[in-house]
Specification:
alpha/beta; 8-stranded parallel beta barrel; 14 helices; Monooxygenase; flavoprotein; NMO; nitronate monooxygenase activity
Length: 374
């Protein structure tokens, strides 16, 4: 599964694996892919530095990358001054706070124990937090910087290039992809409707070749609904130079979900058990459908707030739900490929399966091409 892009980066397989778990990212890199560590959950620079140190020790000198979240549009004060987290918190309406309390009370979700941390707050959606993450990341030999919400600011792109780091950005439409190209982005990730997390409205099979044509000669990675070697072959056949996989790693043995009930829900879910909802961050993100997403998507409720207000509003509630494993509300971002995630396997076992599937697909196509030439 080699392409011009994978060869340029020095990786065996053109499989880029996004994950919030350092152990998974390192295992992806060691298996011959390109591990990309998600930074959004890191609220303190020291925490990110600690895990990048760990990545350095466990990637055998092979390349890896970092994914940050820098929204194309940010919440600003009327005087255009940068807002603090407290400033943003103050913008959350009381009606929405009451709504969160009502949901938690309805399902008898316990409070966190006294002194127990409320878990990671989604402050990484705020640009100033992502910038502190980059101050740490540029001290490490990362080979790729990806931004999940559009093109990073021009100064960030310049900084990355000054460090010899390629910059990737996710696109949900050809228009977004053309904007990335104009902004100096090196790699465009064509993320289809099927994908987990923030995603647009165009399916991967339609989106990928349109993005390839829109940004030629930039390399494109296909994302969304890809979890088998045959699907990787399809993405490459559509013109992509690799694939971007995220959901598939959630049920690997190296993942750190810290919830057996959540893992069980993922293993039991089918492709129709996800929903594209703004309940988690304020922007449409595909995730497991739960009573929590249903409540936020109900027209009778107040509706989600824009990013980053929604993420700050629900952070403690999500921590309580996850800590106490309240099953009806328990969910996670995941794509429609969840239906293929039926057992816990090591990252290496996943790669072995991807490789075999890719070889089957290529053999099948070669047989068809051979017959057509007779």
């Amino acid at each position: 599964m080699q392409t011009e892009l994978s060869n340029a980066l020095g990786v065996e397989h053109a499989v880029f694996g996004f994950t919030p778990f350092p152990a998974v990212a390192a295992a992806i890199t060691r298996a011959g892919g390109f591990g990309v560590l998600g930074a959004v959950r890191y609220t303190a620079p020291g925490e990110l530095a600690r895990d990048l140190d760990w990545m350095q020790e466990h990637t055998d000198g092979l390349p890896y990358g970092l994914d940050v979240v820098m929204p194309a549009k940010k919440v600003e004060a009327p005087d255009k001054q940068t807002l603090t987290e407290a400033d943003v918190e103050a913008m959350i309406p009381d009606e929405h706070r009451r709504f969160v309390t009502e949901i938690l009370d309805k399902y008898h979700v316990p409070q966190l124990a006294e002194g127990e941390a409320s878990g990671w707050r989604i402050t990484g959606w705020m640009e100033q937090v992502a910038r502190t993450q980059l101050d740490v990341a540029f001290d490490y030999p990362i080979k790729l910087l990806a931004n999940a919400l559009g093109s990073p600011p021009p100064d960030v792109v310049r900084r990355a290039h000054d460090h010899g780091i390629l910059v990737a950005a996710l696109a949900g439409s050809p228009r977004h992809a053309r904007h990335h190209k104009a902004a100096g982005i090196d790699i465009v990730v064509a993320q289809g409707y099927e994908a987990g997390g923030h995603t647009g409205e165009i399916a991967t099979m339609v989106l990928t070749p349109e993005v390839v044509a829109a940004v030629d000669p930039l390399p494109v990675l296909a994302a969304g609904g890809i979890g088998t070697g045959e699907q990787i072959a399809a993405g490459l056949a559509l013109g992509a130079q690799g694939v971007w996989l995220g959901s598939l790693w959630l049920t690997t043995e190296e993942a750190e979900l810290h919830s057996r009930r959540l893992t069980a829900k993922l293993l039991a879910a089918g492709p129709g058990d996800t929903v594209r909802s703004r309940a988690l961050t304020g922007k449409p993100a595909r995730q497991l459908r739960t009573d929590w997403t249903d409540a936020w998507d109900d027209p009778s409720g107040p509706g989600p707030l824009p990013m980053p207000l929604q993420g700050l509003l629900v952070a403690e509630a999500n921590s309580r739900i996850q800590r106490h494993e309240v099953e009806p509300l328990l969910g996670t971002p995941v794509g429609q490929i969840v239906g293929r995630m039926t057992s816990e396997r090591s990252v290496q076992a996943v790669f072995d399966d991807l490789t075999r599937g890719f070889e089957r697909a290529i053999d099948r196509i070669n047989r068809i091409a051979g017959r057509s030439q007779r």
